[in-house]
Design brief:
Elements: H1 12-26, E1 32-37, E2 41-45, E3 48-54, H2 58-71, E4 75-78, H3 79-87, E5 99-103, H4 113-125, E6 129-132, H5 134-140, E7 146-148, E8 167-170, H6 179-193, E9 199-202, H7 208-217, E10 222-226, H8 232-236, E11 240-243, H9 246-254, E12 258-262, H10 266-273, H11 278-281, E13 282-285, H12 288-300, H13 306-318, H14 321-342
Helix pairs in contact: 1-14, 2-3, 6-12, 9-13
Length: 352
């Protein structure tokens, strides 16, 4: 598995790579992760081997990555950068290994044309790919083996929501997560509907100073927690989740928390509405006013959230990380069986 960043860094891709890799090792496969670090190192995380290479130019990165690519029977790149920075020449140099890709997220809106071209470039050069969300197929025009939305480790016994309503925002404090619109919705909730909803804010980013200034100027009850390695305890202490990333949505659904997600452009709209059973498991709002109205209804009548919470928990139980790992294996098997029919000799590709 090749990723630009990995644990202990915090992020959706980092979590995805770590959990899928762990599930593959638990299923009996040998997995190594190749990533960047300030200083080169090798370590073990349980049965997972992590190789950290120094940040260098492409030519040096290709050379340093070669021994690791040669060891593997399957190479899997997460996003465009991983393929370009570590793998590109290995397409022609022996020993040639089957290379796959997973495309996560998006760059910005509108999507830069260069970003679309590079993803399509990589898509044409790997054996096959997974897309994290069908919006990638639509907006980047990329074919793939399957669409996934990530997974979750289901909470075995979710705690009941607190008696007093409160919310937790999880995400980078940047334009693409609509942090300022969420804060505006809380202000409108108080001014137009009479509810003063406390909110915790998990994450950091370029809009943090503006968000803090807005909170202080409008007397919003907000607590900034910064980047948190494990937001689950904070999420469990709230009734509502302001989340728009797939993994954070799964976590909230698994904990039986009502999810509110806001979009401000067509790309994010497709991102959210493409989520499995989106309209049945969360409230999706187009602007701060719509979000404030939805919040007011749920605060006034908690029973309205009941059906969404019940279905959300059941859906999360169906989308576990082992299920995501099985999708990876299914893709590998398809191409390895095809290769076995057309070639003879060479090392066996050991995917059972």
């Amino acid at each position: 598995m090749i990723a630009p960043s990995f644990y202990p860094a915090v992020g959706g891709v980092e979590t995805h790579v770590r959990r899928v890799s762990a599930c593959l090792t638990e299923a009996g496969h040998q997995v190594a992760v190749l990533t960047h670090a300030d200083l080169p190192s090798q370590e073990r995380l349980g049965s997972l081997v992590v190789h950290r290479l120094p940040k260098t130019g492409w030519a040096t990165a290709w050379r340093l990555a070669r021994p690791h690519l040669g060891w593997a029977e399957v190479v899997h790149c997460h996003d465009t950068y991983s393929y370009l920075h570590f793998c590109l020449p290995s397409r022609w140099l022996p020993p040639r290994r089957p290379v796959f890709a997973t495309f996560h997220g998006y760059e910005s809106y509108p999507i830069p044309k260069e970003a679309i071209r590079w993803r399509q470039f990589v898509s044409r050069r790997v054996r096959d790919a997974l897309c994290m969300g069908d919006f990638i197929c639509k907006h980047y025009r990329i074919p793939c083996f399957a669409v996934s939305y990530g997974g979750v480790d289901p909470a075995p016994d979710p705690p009941p929501p607190p008696a007093e309503p409160s919310a937790l925002f999880i995400g980078r404090l940047a334009e693409d997560t609509s942090i300022m619109a969420y804060l505006e919705a809380l202000l409108r909730l108080r001014r137009e509907h009479g509810y003063d909803l406390p909110v915790g804010i998990v994450g950091d980013g370029p809009l943090r100073p503006a968000a803090e200034k807005y909170v202080n100027a409008n007397w919003i009850k907000a607590t900034f927690h910064g980047v948190v390695a494990d937001p689950i305890p904070l999420l469990a202490a709230c009734r509502y989740a302001f989340v728009s990333g797939y993994l954070a949505i799964w976590q909230a659904l698994s904990l039986r928390r009502q999810v509110f997600a806001l979009y401000e452009n067509p790309l994010k709209r497709d991102y959210l509405r493409g989520f499995p059973e989106a309209e049945k498991v969360m409230v999706i709002a187009a602007d701060a006013g719509e979000l404030a109205r939805s919040l007011a209804r749920c605060v006034a009548e908690p029973a309205l959230s009941g059906r969404m919470v019940e279905r959300g928990e059941a859906l999360a139980a169906e989308h576990t990380w082992p299920r995501v790992a099985e999708l990876y294996l299914a893709m590998y098997r398809k191409h390895m069986q095809r290769s076995a029919r057309h070639t003879s000799g060479g090392p066996p590709l050991g995917i059972a």
